[in-house]
């Protein structure tokens, strides 16, 4: 059983437990539930912004504790001030040290798109995402049968949420594409082996239909790599560990974005980035 299988198995148990503790009516009564969704798609493709979806992540199964003491309030505000387009907040507790409270805090202090980063297997989690104040959810193709992924995407869309579908090979992409998706992300980290290669993104960029916003995820630790990915056709770049491993993640994001803008200015086709 690989790590993704383990996470998904525990996620099904976790969801059943939470359903029994927090009824749907309570989720729907949240102050955030009827809030206006901020479009991840629009912010990520905005020519004045960096395209970076900056992630708040305390730990991961592959790296262990990355930053156990960071403040969601300070880091999320700092990310946006540094020039990020959007935020990604981990809400999985067992494997990533996150919580729904982290996302609620990020929402309270920022007007920008926020994606709930978790392993979604049930409509209940999408209602939870809305109640936390998320604007977008993640659906992982490797974790969901195509029919289930499409049904979850349609449910999220009915609540006004946007959907980022994550893939890491052409087979997952082709079997899971559906009209309700807004963004398609290529995870450069293989969730079964944890190997990371940006070549995964470069190999798939042309396969993603043009109507979806293209996002490259994981393993982007050098602004030059981001320039390469932007030139290849990506609009969005999900970066977490590279910022979070610093004692001041928001400063790391600021330095990275500043360098990316400097490099972009030297590339004629990217000078608007």
UniProtKB/TrEMBL annotation:
The keyword Amino-acid biosynthesis applies. Signal peptide: none annotated. Pathway: Amino-acid biosynthesis; L-tryptophan biosynthesis; L-tryptophan from chorismate: step 4/5. PROSITE patterns: IGPS. Its EC number is 4.1.1.48. One of its GO terms (molecular function) is indole-3-glycerol-phosphate synthase activity. The keyword Cell cycle does not apply. It catalyses: 1-(2-carboxyphenylamino)-1-deoxy-D-ribulose 5-phosphate + H(+) = (1S,2R)-1-C-(indol-3-yl)glycerol 3-phosphate + CO2 + H2O. Pfam families: IGPS. Keywords: Amino-acid biosynthesis, Aromatic amino acid biosynthesis, Decarboxylase, Lyase, Tryptophan biosynthesis. Gene3D superfamilies: Aldolase class I. Residues 4-252 form the Indole-3-glycerol phosphate synthase domain. Belongs to the TrpC family. This is Indole-3-glycerol phosphate synthase. It comes from Algoriphagus oliviformis.
